[in-house]
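Quick one:
INPUT:
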């Protein structure tokens, strides 16, 4: 009996290694879909071909597969199945960080619950207005350095999408609002929290409106004295 089991295991292992596309490769890694053994595989699981994932009773699943973005190149894509009903993370378990060249969305919500905040201080409108006057805005094109880690075939498209942008220079904003500028530890590159500028603009507009109302009252008083 033991001899029979051993023979069956040997035959199964031989078939798996020589013909099947599900293999255990050197390093105890798993290879799925590859026509031959990749002795240089370092990933614990490597899959060649479209993969589909779903956990019942979810309404839909997600597939990871090839997507022809343009006539010059294809991309590996996360593709929702049966409609746009796939979550990335959950309200309680979120991704920490993402690095993305381009993003399209319908709505965007930033967590702003007062219960999650401390050291709350009101912004002073006059100070905000003075700070706004120091912020310089520009139009610009992103250069190749911005996409240096992208695939060569993608760079023409990314450079095209990066034209005619409008914004600020992070180095200049850092001198005014250092908390709105982040330095990446790995590269030293600077990024800007543009959403963080909205409260500054709101308080600045309110302060400016107060100045306008005061001037209107002063003009009205001068008119009354003249009459």
């Amino acid at each position: 009996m033991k001899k029979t089991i051993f023979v069956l295991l040997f035959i199964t292992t031989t078939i798996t290694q020589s013909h099947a596309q599900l293999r255990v490769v050197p390093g105890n890694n798993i290879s799925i879909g590859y026509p031959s053994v990749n002795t240089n595989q370092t990933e614990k699981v490597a899959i060649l071909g479209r993969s589909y994932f779903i956990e019942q009773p979810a309404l839909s699943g997600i597939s990871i597969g090839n997507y022809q973005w343009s006539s010059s190149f294809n991309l590996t894509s996360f593709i929702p199945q049966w409609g746009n009903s796939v979550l990335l993370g959950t309200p309680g378990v979120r991704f920490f960080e993402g690095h993305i060249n381009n993003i399209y969305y319908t709505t965007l919500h930033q967590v702003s619950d007062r219960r999650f905040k401390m050291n709350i201080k009101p912004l002073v409108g006059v100070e905000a207005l003075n700070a706004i006057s120091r912020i310089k805005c520009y139009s610009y094109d992103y250069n190749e350095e911005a996409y240096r880690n992208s695939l060569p075939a993608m760079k023409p498209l990314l450079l095209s999408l990066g034209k005619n942008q409008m914004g600020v220079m992070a180095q200049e904003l850092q001198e005014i609002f250092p908390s709105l500028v982040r330095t990446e530890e790995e590269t030293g590159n600077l990024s800007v929290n543009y959403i963080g500028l909205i409260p500054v603009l709101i308080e600045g507009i309110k302060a400016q409106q107060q100045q306008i109302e005061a001037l209107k009252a002063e003009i009205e008083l001068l008119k009354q004295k003249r009459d």
